[in-house]
Amino acid sequence: MTGSPEGDVNTSPARARWHENLDAETRALLADDAEYFLHQALSTPCLDVIERAEGAELIDVAGRRILDFHGNSVHQLGHGHPAVVAAIREEMERLPFSPRRYTNRTAIALARKLADIAPGDLRKVLFAPSGAAAIGIALKLARIATGRHNTLSMWDSFHGANLDTISVGGEALFRRGVGPLMSGTEHVPPLDQAERFFGDDGRAFERLADYIDYVLGLEEVAAVVAEPMRWTTVVPPPPGFWPLVRQSCDRHGTLLIFDEIPSCLGRTGTMFACEQVGCVPDILVIGKGLGGGIMPMAAIVARADLDVAPQSALGHYTHEKSPVGAAAALATLDVIEKDGLVERSRQLGEYGLAQLRTMAADNALLKAVRGLGLYFGVEIGGNDRAEANGRAEAILYAALERGLSFKIGGGNVITLCPPLTIEQEQLDRSFAILAGAIAVLPPA
Ligand SMILES: Cc1ncc(COP(=O)(O)O)c(C=O)c1O
Asked: How far is the CA of 299 from the CAs of 60, 274, 380, 428, 435, in angstroms?
């Protein structure tokens, strides 16, 4: 198991059992998939073959309905939201593509919208076709703006699978075996390891912030790159942490880049996660759900005074100002606002967290429950890591058999990422499935 955004579902005995129970057609399709795609971790071989996706559910070729609490974090609006589909169709018929050096009304409208809703003085936008590409743009901009090239980020973090982003990221699975990475990428322990390395007397995050300040004082660092909330293990930082890091960045001439690719657009109960951590970054990177769960769309939103690289090609991507992608994003933002999904995420999130806490109070297998908005982490305990990880994986497959999909972060944290549009009844049903899957294990 890995702390990666996908969780490692490729190799275990539990996976083999799952595969054996699939119907013949699904197995044949999976065999074709395995024949024609390059095999890679966290992807091929695949778990199942899906035929349709609608709302909160995936429907596989055997007709099984699976509540999708994974969705690669793209599904704030669920799958195939009608407003997004209609906006895409309409734009596709009018302006399917906008060649470089031309702009278009839809892309301009989206840039203006993001500048309007982004916190603080974040005003200048570039789009990219993936989160990793957007992080790459942010890194280049930080280098040019500061005249420095080092970065400081967190071990075990994930910022995308490209060479530059795995260098800044700290996840072993992505870094191992690919040869030399980008130089000048320094790392500190991640938020979920703060107590391990900086003490469990309640001052760990203060010390982690102090350590970051110390490193920024030693080296010329272009940017601190981090998620405001640790995504894979659902660890929100204590309130004072990021303001301290913000002050250090200001003192040392370092930019602060927040990666909100999975956590943006209402997921955590505010439009942007950074609204809850007490500081605004210099560059905010968003993605995933920005394309309405259909179009690949990511963006950086930077401070206006960082518009300092007119001579550089910061993000020279073919689909840079995609009118269809921008139409999907505008429709997504419109639905989020009109349907009050940010508020819904907060309220339903509080309800869900209370339900999970009740579940944990009755079951010693559940070591901790965390959450922010409609994103939850249930940490599975064990006598050692292997036992905890094995239990989490057994729960994953037992839940999948019963119709609930989620991913595992950090080896033993069940992460639950439902659409913000989910009905309370569906949420209750999902938690009942989870409880049933946990009940398969012998009690702790
Ligand atoms: C925190 C974080 N940053 C960056 C990325 C990369 O985004 P993409 O897969 O669109 O390149 C991801 C994707 O899982 C992510 O979770």
From this structure: 32, 16, 35, 34, 38
Nearest CA to ligand 1 atom 13: 160
Q: What is the pLDDT of residues 50-108, one digit of tens each?
A: 999 999 999 999 999 999 999 999 999 999 999 999 999 999 999 999 999 999 999 99
* Atom 8 in ligand 1: residue holding the nearest Cα: 131
Judged on CB neighbours under 10 Å (0-12, 13-18, 19+), 27 is middle
Task: Indicate the length of the chain as a whole number.
Answer: 444
pLDDT tens-digit profile of 173-189? 999 999 999 999 999 99
Phi, psi of 285 (to 5 degrees): -115, 125
Mean pLDDT, the chain cut into blocks of 10 residues (444 residues total): 42 83 96 93 88 98 97 98 98 97 97 98 98 98 98 97 97 94 97 96 97 97 96 91 98 98 98 97 98 98 97 94 98 98 98 97 95 97 95 95 96 97 97 97 85
Partners of 303 in the beta sheet? 122
> Against a cut of 0.85, is the pTM above it?
yes
Q: Are 281 and 256 in contact (CB under 8 A)?
A: yes
Test site for ligand 1: of 159, 168, 173, most ligand atoms within 8 A of the Cβ: 159
Please choose from 6, 70, 157, 158 the residue to mutate so as to test ligand 1's pocket, defined by most ligand atoms within 8 A of CB. Answer: 158
Half-sphere exposure (Cβ direction) of 94: Cα atoms closer than 13 Å: 13
Instruction: For residues 233 and 138, give the distance between their C-alpha atoms in angstroms, rounded to a whole number.
Output: 24
CA nearest neighbour of 378 among 401, 394, 357:
357
